[in-house]
Each structure stands twice: as C-alpha cells, then as structure tokens.
From TrEMBL:
Superkingdom as given in the UniProt entry: Bacteria
EC numbers for this chain: 3.1.26.4
Entry cofactors: Mg(2+); Mn(2+)
HAMAP family: RNase_HII_B
PANTHER family: RIBONUCLEASE H2 SUBUNIT A, RIBONUCLEASE HII
Family affiliation: Belongs to the RNase HII family.
Gene: rnhB
Residues holding a divalent metal cation: D23, E24, D114
Catalytic activities: Endonucleolytic cleavage to 5'-phosphomonoester
Protein name per UniProt: Ribonuclease HII
Length: 209
C-alpha cells in the first residue's frame, strides 16, 4: 500500500480547502509524552517517498522531516505523562491531536485523522482513517513529523536520565529498559499506571513496608 492524495482531493470536491492530516506516536512507551502532528500540504508541493513512519529508516525519516517542514504548514503538540495518568492513553493522544490542529498557523477546515475514532470536542469536520499513515499522504507526513520530534525529545531526556536507553528504545519497554527500571527506579517521566512501571513501584512499596 502506497499513500496517495485521494482523501484530500475528495474533501476538496466537497468544498473544503485546508485539509490537515493528523497522527500521533507514543501510545505504547513506558516513558515520555504522547506526541501528535498536524500537516497541511499544498497540492504539487508534496515530498516524494512519504509513507508510514514505521516503514522508514531513521535516516529517511530525518530527510523527509526536513522536506515536510520546508513546504507544509505543520504543528506538533504533546500530552504529558501527567495527562496520560489523569485521563488514559487514548484520551491523552486525542488531546495531543486536537492541540496540533488548533496550533496550525493556517486554520484547517477539515481533518483526516489516523485511526478508527475521532477526538471528542473537535471544532471542525473530520474523518477517521484506519491505517491512514499508509493510505493518506498528509497523515503519512504527520506520522513522520510526530515520530521525529518525539524521538529527538527522548534522546534529550536520555541525557538527563542516563541508563534507561531512551536514546535507542524511545521509552518503549525493552528488556534493558525494564532491567534499568528495576535497578535505577522510576523517573518523573515514567508512566506510573502502565503495568511494568506500576509493578515495579508496587514491589518497591512492599520492600519498604
């Protein structure tokens, strides 16, 4: 499957003019925020080679990220670890998506959103697109931007909290990350309600009781 511009064109034929693709990354990690991006392209100014960010090498993502940022209107937004714990990961990812849309320098009048659900309280018409990052060029671009920004953020956090391997695992629950959690403990950037982190906190509480 190769992403195309058909969904954007379809929205334009219905009278919409500024169509944003939206995607998020970071639902699964044990640490760090969830990050979303909204991307608006002008037809004819779309980089070649866009695809689901998970199908691209890091080098390809970085190159495409620079190209996207040079030709598109882009906004990136986050939902914090505290918001993930206050609500849940789905609601937090939707908060990040909504913030990305609101923050666009040009106001979108239609959104194509990766997944099978729309964030509640959206202030514009939208449609969910299952596997959108592999089907829709604007969503593919959003997935690349969101992953690149979040990966870089986790590399920065890894320098502040060495030992967890965030510069390579990006906060996901790798064996080395789990081992570091057991040896080094839980940081403020860990999602305490996620099961592996919660279990380690529970075990630590048992030892101190």
């Amino acid at each position: 499957m190769i992403p195309d511009y058909e969904l954007e064109r379809g929205a334009m034929t219905r009278g919409f003019r500024t169509i944003a693709g939206v995607d998020e990354v970071g639902r699964g990690p044990l640490a760090g925020p969830v990050t979303a991006a909204a991307v608006v392209f002008a037809e004819g100014q779309i980089p070649e080679g866009l695809n689901d960010s998970k199908k691209l090498t890091a080098r390809a993502r970085e190159k495409l990220y620079e190209e996207i940022m040079s030709v598109a209107v882009v906004c990136v937004a986050h939902a914090t670890v505290e918001e993930i714990e206050e609500h849940n990961i789905l609601r937090a990812s939707h908060l990040a998506m909504t913030r990305a849309l609101v923050g666009l320098a040009c106001k979108a009048d239609y959104a194509l959103i990766d997944g099978n659900m729309l964030p509640r309280d959206l202030a514009l018409p939208a449609q969910p697109v299952v596997k959108g990052d592999a089907r829709c060029l604007s969503i593919s671009a959003a997935s690349i931007v969101a992953k690149t920004v979040r990966d870089n953020l986790m590399v920065d956090l890894a320098q502040q909290h060495p030992g967890y391997g965030w510069e390579t695992n990006m906060g996901y629950g790798s064996k080395s990350h789990i081992a570091a959690l057991q040896d080094l403990g839980v940081t403020p950037h860990h999602r305490r309600l996620f099961k592996p982190v919660h279990n380690i906190l529970y075990q630590a509480n048992l030892l101190t009781d």
